[in-house]
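re: the backbone from monday

yeah here it is again, tokenized this time
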């Protein structure tokens, strides 16, 4: 899998004079998570942008996301969100 070994989960950034850790996909990002994503081959059909999800928290390699349509919460793997970001499905 890409980005599996020694991957960078955060980077250091100076905000208001303080050095803080910033994740690869920040909290508050809106993503259109797709059902048909595969780890190595990406998306297999055209993307559907009906249900936006908000990244609320990180738990190691899992992100807690909330649906902006119906309020459901789920945990999603980090590679899943990275594929969505690479495809341009994040805001």
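seq for it, each position gets an aa:
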């Amino acid at each position: 899998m890409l980005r599996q070994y020694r991957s960078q989960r955060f980077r250091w950034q100076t905000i208001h004079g303080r050095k803080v850790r910033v994740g690869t996909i920040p909290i508050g990002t809106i993503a259109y998570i797709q059902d048909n994503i595969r780890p190595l081959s990406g998306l297999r059909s055209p993307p559907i942008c009906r249900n936006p999800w908000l990244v609320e928290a990180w738990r190691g390699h899992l992100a807690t996301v909330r649906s902006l349509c119906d309020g459901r919460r789920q945990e999603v793997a980090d590679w899943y969100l990275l594929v969505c970001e690479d495809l341009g499905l994040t805001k």
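The helical segments are 78-86. The first helix runs from residue 78 to 86.
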